[in-house]
Design brief:
- By secondary structure, the protein is mainly α.
- It has helices spanning 13-16, 19-51, 54-90, 94-130, 135-150, 153-167, 172-194, 204-228, 245-277, 282-296, 298-320, 324-351, 353-358, 365-397, 402-426, 431-455.
């Protein structure tokens, strides 16, 4: 019988030490990783814009809009995996942790090989027509999108591994992998987008090539480490390639609501853009929205998503360890950290808005006026977002993934789009009305998330997968 691979022991300070330290230990690496990953996207756009032009930027933007919807849905199974991993890590059951991650790995292979790659390759041109991309943009976007669909396993592997290690209590290894991934991606993009020596310039297509190649390199290294031992999660070489339906069912049971939530929120964002496009100064309002909301406000959402991931891990582990009161305290502590960070970033939106906008070369007076106006709303909205995501992490980490789905549909679709439709129907829709609708949607999400978590139904959610089957 082959001896078991040696793995690190679980960090018991998450379920036994000071709760503030436990939350922060997982939060800061996750927040930093999200910021670095977000900056990578900005670098990609800057390089393609310089070497290809605005058509290349449009192609990447449209492609990511499509690809993100698909990836968010498929990546939802990693949320389900994280629920199980955190619970088993809290119980100090490494065998169940390893089996759960291994089954998520096998499921990812099947989804990429038999769903994402073939369907994405065939459907790519039709999806680009669906979003009304111009012929010029479609010509640049099609090869980019097909490469991303067909060779996306490395990226999905990175997402899976980050979620697994973080849920098991190790947030620093995903951070190191994320830094390596970003550096590789930037280096490869510099070479492949513009060309270097005998390597031709691939333009927009080169950005996709850099992304998937860097993801593949990280995935190969990760598999070597998983099978070699040394991480808190390990794979045994004798593990069966046969899917374990009991584990996979639970992964999808907890993960699918998160996928539906992600798709719904992306659809809501697209529909909100339609309302912005109906304004008298639509081009200026869209520019203000893109820079202020999707770029500057991302510094709040990136850190808040990091808080959410850390909260899910700490909450799930403590519930697994039979400490629901400690679980509850961890969520309150995480929300406090989030408020401090969101407040600090939001204060910059109020104090130096024009300086922040100047980074993006904003010069049009109308765009600047609308952007400054939106940043004032977002300074308040950021407080609601970070609270909402902290409590969402608490709910998801304990296994209640359905409630955040319903809350998101109400707060991110029904409330803001309903308000915009009401303003448009019974009055004149202005940019300020849309900004207000965004804030009220975030306020609703925060309020409902706090209310649902404090009801405490998550305390009774049972999670288990049974013992390992004989080989």
């Amino acid at each position: 019988m082959r001896p078991a691979r040696k793995s690190k022991t679980f960090d018991r300070s998450i379920v036994e030490g000071p709760i503030n330290s436990a939350v922060w230990k997982l939060a800061w690496p996750t927040m930093l990783q999200n910021i670095i990953g977000g900056l990578q996207g900005l670098v990609d756009h800057a390089m393609v814009g310089n070497y290809v032009g605005y058509v290349g930027n449009a192609a990447i933007g449209v492609s990511w809009q499509i690809f993100l919807v698909v990836v968010v849905f498929i990546s939802s199974l990693f949320t389900g995996m994280g629920v199980l991993v955190a619970r088993f890590a809290g119980r100090d059951e490494p065998d169940k942790v390893n089996r759960t991650v291994y089954q998520a790995f096998l499921t990812s292979i099947l989804l990429v090989a038999f769903v994402l790659a073939p369907i994405g390759y065939v459907a790519a041109p039709y999806l680009l027509e669906l979003v009304n991309a111009t012929a010029e943009v479609r010509a640049e976007a099609l090869p980019y999108l097909r490469i991303m669909f067909v060779f996306s396993f490395g990226m999905l592997m990175f997402f899976m591994l980050g979620g697994a290690l973080r849920s098991a209590g190790d947030a620093q290894t995903p951070l190191r992998l994320g830094v390596a991934l970003t550096i590789l991606n930037i280096v490869l993009n510099v070479v492949l987008i513009a060309g270097l020596g005998p390597i031709p310039a691939f333009g927009t297509q080169g950005a996709a090539m850099g992304t998937v190649i860097s993801g593949a390199i990280i995935a190969v290294y990760a598999l070597f480490k998983l099978f070699g031992g040394g991480w808190v999660v390990v794979f045994e070489r004798g593990m069966s390639w046969r899917p374990d339906l009991d584990i996979i069912k639970q992964i999808f049971k907890f993960g699918l609501p998160t996928g539906i939530q992600g798709v719904a929120m992306n659809v809501g964002g697209v529909l909100l853009l339609a309302f912005i496009g109906s304004l008298a100064a639509s081009a200026q309002a869209q520019a203000a929205y893109v820079v202020s909301y999707t770029q500057l406000f991302s510094f709040i959402t990136w850190t808040s998503v990091g808080i959410m991931g850390a909260t899910a891990a700490v909450a799930g582990q403590n519930l697994g360890a039979g400490q629901p009161d400690r679980t509850s305290r961890s969520v309150h502590v995480a929300a406090g950290f989030g408020l401090l960070l969101a407040g600090a970033i939001g204060s910059l939106f109020l104090v130096i808005p024009t300086h922040l906008l100047g980074i993006f070369g904003m010069e049009d007076p109308t765009v600047i006026e609308l952007s400054v106006q939106l940043l004032r709303y977002l300074a308040l909205s950021g407080l609601f977002v970070t609270v909402a995501l902290a409590y969402t992490g608490g709910l998801q980490g304990t296994g209640d993934t359905k409630s955040p789905m319903y809350i998101s549909i109400v707060s991110q679709i029904v409330i803001p789009l309903g308000l915009c439709l009401g303003f448009q129907t019974f009055s004149t829709l202005d940019a300020a009305d849309i900004w207000l609708a965004i804030v009220l949607g975030h306020f609703t999400r925060a309020s409902l998330s706090v209310i649902v978590f404090r009801r405490g139904k998550w305390r009774d959610i049972e999670v288990d997968i049974g013992d390992a089957r004989p080989a």
